[in-house]
Each structure stands twice: as structure tokens, then as C-alpha cells.
């Protein structure tokens, strides 16, 4: 029965008020059965489609980060063997080399280090994007850290005839941060400044702004067009500039630096004028961010290499990595034994406990090794 058909029964109803109430109830029931307006249907469909796209994009981003992390690790392992053995040959501990051989080995080692830096940046960026990077906060001496970073950049600056300058502030001598990551951020900014500055100077200045510390890296380099200032913070991006093409690089340093700044609760921005230079401003909170700000970084001291009386065991199932480590440690004067199977590990660690273990990354994550070490 509907509200309209109920009108035929009106003459038979003695209670007009009750009749109208029943008619209203039926009308409301009919309205609830009507399909929603077309605009509402389209809006709902659009919202559902956008949500599905968002979830698909997040899944693709996570899959990309996992793939980059996996492939970067697989590339870095054999590359470490290349770097280790080339360094060993350069030291001529296995025999003398002529000048041309030393020159070629330097090329091999330099190219390997460049490739390793790119792989490490990819791995770091994928860890930050996937939420797997965890900061280890500690109190950092800023003058000491900044001077150390400038010392590492100095050879490249000297080679190009650039002047490096540091300006500190008495009220900006410490902050709470992940020291390794802060060093990485400053080195990325300083390296970029030196790379894109043909002549002139690069300056690192540190000052306090209320509850924040600001690091400013200023150069007299080629500058960045205004319309491309945000583009430089995108991964794998280099500016479409004639002078830029003279320099190598994967375009990862600035993207990673901004991500690490945000992970600290800070931010990174840039000001630039083409032909005059650029200024990068990195701001971080003085007291760190999140619960990790109270966590102290732990340091582990290892015995110095070079004592023939010390015994060392290398545990690594990757053959090339294993050989490189064994050769390098022997060249440092250690008595060394290697293990590439769990049977060998058990024998070496049970018969004669070594003074030092070198464990491959994959093996270090195996709970069986941790359990065995606890029993020693």
C-alpha cells in the first residue's frame, strides 16, 4: 500500500488525525526506497575510484621501495669485493705494480666508489620512503661536525680553486640529531655546492632560530632557474641546464636530504639566482623529534687491526665478498679463518673462540648465529 492508494480509504476512516499520521508514515517509507539523486551516485563513485587509485599508488610505491632496497643490496655486496680487492692491489701487498697499473687501479677504485655512493643513496631513499629508517638520536657537537664535513670536502674544493668558509654561532654549538644522518645531509649539500660552483667560494653557516638550528650552505655557482627550484628535490632529477650536463650524478642527494630533514621534524628549502649562486637552508629542531629523541646512540669499539697475535673469523656465505675480506684482513697482519657454512661456523667458534668476528649482513640477521654466540 502506498500513500496515494490510501486516499481511496479516507471516506471510511473516522479518525482524521490517525489517517494523516498513517499517510505520512507511508510517504516516508516510499521516499526511503527511492534511488539517491544522480549527483550523489556520481560523487560516491568518484570518491571510491579516487580511494582505489590512492591505495594502488601506495602499494606501487611500497613495492618500488622494496625492489630498490633488494636490488641495491644485491649490487652492493659484489661491489664491496671489487673495492676491497682493488684497494689491496693498490697497496702492492701482493706484489709490485708499474705506474700504469696503479693508474688503472685508481680508476677502477674511483669508479667503484662512485657507483657505491649511488647505490647507497638509492637504498637510503627507499628505506626512508618505506618507513624503515629509524633515527638514532644523540647530542651532536655542531662545530666539530661541520669542521669534519668541510675537511672531507676540502680536497675537491682545492682542486677547483674554491674557498671553503665556516661561520658558527656561540648559541648554536649542539643539537639533538642522528649524527650519521646529519653528516650525510651536510655532505650532500656541500658536495652539490662544490660540484656546481666553477669558481668563487662555498660557505657553511650555522645559527640558532628560537627552538631550531639552521644550516645554510651558500655558493657562488651556476644558480637554479626559479621555475625549477622544487624540481631539484625530486628523485633521479637533474636540471635541464647546459652546464649541469657537464657533471655526473643520479640526482638523489637533494631528494634524500629533504626526506631525512623531514624525518628529523625539520625542512629543507632553497633560494637561487641564475649566474650568481644558491643558498640551501636546512632547519632542524634543537631537541629532535618524537620518542627517539631520548634514545642514546650506542658505540661499539673494536680492537685495532694489525696485531698478528689476534685471531679473527670471517663469516660470509657470498664467495666474492668472503675472498675479499679474507685477503684484506690477512694483509693487515691478522690470523684469520673463514666460514661459508654453518658446520664451519660451529667448528671455528667451538674449538677456539676468536678475538673478533666479521659477519656478513645476511648472516648477521640469522637467529641461529645469535643463539650460538650466546652459548659461548
Descriptive account of the structure:
It is a single chain. With 376 residues, this protein is an alpha/beta fold. The protein has four domains: 34 residues, no CATH class; 89 residues, Helix Hairpins (Orthogonal Bundle), CATH 1.10.287.130; 157 residues, Histidine kinase-like ATPase, C-terminal domain (Heat Shock Protein 90), CATH 3.30.565; 65 residues, no CATH class. 49% of the residues lie in helices and 16% in strands. It has ten helices and ten strands. It has a five-stranded mixed β-sheet with strand order 2-4-5-7-6, covered by helices on one side. It has a three-stranded parallel β-sheet with strand order 9-8-10, with helices on both faces. Strand 4 and strand 5 form a beta hairpin. Helix 3 packs across helix 6. The longest helix has 53 residues. The radius of gyration is 32 Å and the shape is extended. About 5% of the residues have low confidence.
